[in-house]
Design goal:
The protein is of the alpha+beta class and 428 residues long. The protein has twelve helices and eleven strands. Among the domains are: 111 residues, Alpha-Beta Plaits; 98 residues, Chitinase A, domain 3 (Roll); 59 residues, no CATH class. The protein is 48% helix and 19% strand.
Length: 428
């Protein structure tokens, strides 16, 4: 096989591929063997007739078409490997010469990952922030546990801190009085003091009795999750339908035993502190890794094909759509809440998508440079561990699928690469 490579753009390559006669002969025999399964030749069992007799029996157009498909597909893959290219999509194939079974030449234009110029990642330093858990953090968890275990009693008095109120509410723009999608609710249970709602909202409910209505204005935080509501003044009209007193159980050894395998409150507190520390360490590690990768990616240069960025934008969009559906919000309602069109929303996600793709390519390049690999034995051990976590036979079968095994291998390689980068980043 002969391959001529032409770089059309930093992320687009044209390959001119000419197959060798010996390769073509092998392909022809392979195709005839496949076709023999559907051809009957008198005096021979199915699939056992000689190739030259099969060739006389089959439709020549079918034979030539199958032959050409095999040649193009196989030689294209070989050429990509030979030239060490990383395709970002399907190639555009053009057959430029075809003499049946003796000569084949074709071109393949394809988007590829361009040159990657890595920053000196061995000198990128980043300190890890220590994680701590305070007594207040533990007390907050204990209070939540007691709240969930509280007995409830409807009351007619005014609501106070710690009560649960059931409310109907609507939100409108404080200036224009136009309704705001997603800023209304019905029969919504809210515990005053839980800090689970918009800052300042819960405090407005103190002193209200069942049947009371109140109108007030809340300014949304500047870092609120929905961009269109950030720093926005919203007028709420709230009707209290029910006030419920929560009688929390005493924080004693009996309560600790009801929560889990604990004999004393001290044991429960120690377990909560341990779990909180593990969660925060994991969260801090993810944040550290993301920042470290971003620092290296920003200092590196990568020629990224548009197709890869487009795919990542679509993945981000699909994730947002699932989250919107989970919140009971249609995609159009989500777009309206952000005040953007579908196309504007995609463009807003493009910079983040590009950085994610770039970070992934940089990680892959570092793994290659460091000669990091995952052995078959390491992969099998990880899969067996995962199977131990998922006893369901269907889930275990999923872990054996080739695409899932590749995904697990990729994650393991990423873990090794990150571990190597952490070592460089924290070395004194």
């Amino acid at each position: 096989m002969q391959v001529k490579k032409e770089q059309l753009t930093p992320t687009s390559t044209k390959l001119t591929i000419t197959a060798d006669p010996a390769e073509l002969a092998v392909v022809k025999q392979h195709v005839l063997k496949d076709l023999s399964k559907s051809v009957k030749v008198q005096g021979f069992r199915e699939g056992k007739a000689p190739a030259h007799l099969i060739e006389k029996q089959v439709d020549q157009n079918v034979l030539q078409s199958e032959f050409l498909d095999h040649v193009v597909n196989e030689r294209y893959v070989d050429a990509i490997q030979q030239e060490q290219l990383r395709p970002a999509g399907q190639p555009q194939i053009t057959v430029t010469k075809f003499v049946p079974f003796s000569e084949v030449e074709f071109t393949a234009e394809v988007e590829v990952v361009g040159d990657v110029t890595l920053a000196d990642y061995t000198k990128v330093k980043l300190d890890q922030t220590p994680v701590s858990v305070s007594a207040k953090d533990v007390d907050e968890v204990l209070d939540n546990l007691r709240t969930r275990a509280a007995t409830k009693q409807d009351v007619t008095r005014a609501a106070k801190d710690g009560d649960e109120v059931t409310i109907d509410f609507t939100g409108t723009d404080a200036k224009t009085q136009e309704p705001i999608d997603g800023a209304d609710g019905s029969d919504y249970p809210l515990t005053i003091g839980s800090k689970t709602f918009i800052p300042g909202f819960e405090e407005e409910l103190i002193g209200l009795k069942p049947g009371d209505e109140k109108t007030f204005v809340i300014t949304f935080p500047k870092d609120y999750g929905t961009a269109s509501l950030q720093s926005r003044k919203v007028q709420f009209v709230v009707t209290v339908k029910k006030v419920t007193e929560l009688a929390k159980p005493e924080l004693d050894d009996a309560f600790a035993a009801s929560v889990g395998p604990f004999k004393t409150v001290a044991e429960l507190k120690a377990d909560i502190k341990k779990q909180l520390k593990v969660e925060r360490e994991q969260e801090a590690q993810r944040a550290y890794d993301n920042q470290l990768i971003q620092n290296i990616a920003e200092k590196s240069e990568v020629a990224i094909p548009t197709a890869l960025i487009d795919e990542e934008v679509e993945r981000i969009e699909e994730e947002e759509k699932r989250n919107s559906a989970y919140r009971g919000q249609t995609w159009q309602e989500h777009l309206d809440a952000e005040g953007v069109t579908a196309e504007e929303h995609k463009e807003k996600n493009r910079p983040g998508a590009e950085l994610r793709v770039k970070a992934g390519l940089v990680l892959s390049e570092i793994a290659d440079k460091e000669k990091l690999t995952v052995t078959p034995e390491e992969l099998e051990i990880r899969i067996q561990l995962l199977k131990g976590q998922y006893p369901d036979p269907a889930m275990q079968a999923e872990l054996d699928k080739p695409e899932n095994r590749r995904d697990i291998l990729s994650r393991m390689l990423t873990e090794k690469t990150l571990d190597k980068l952490r070592g460089y980043a924290t070395a004194k």
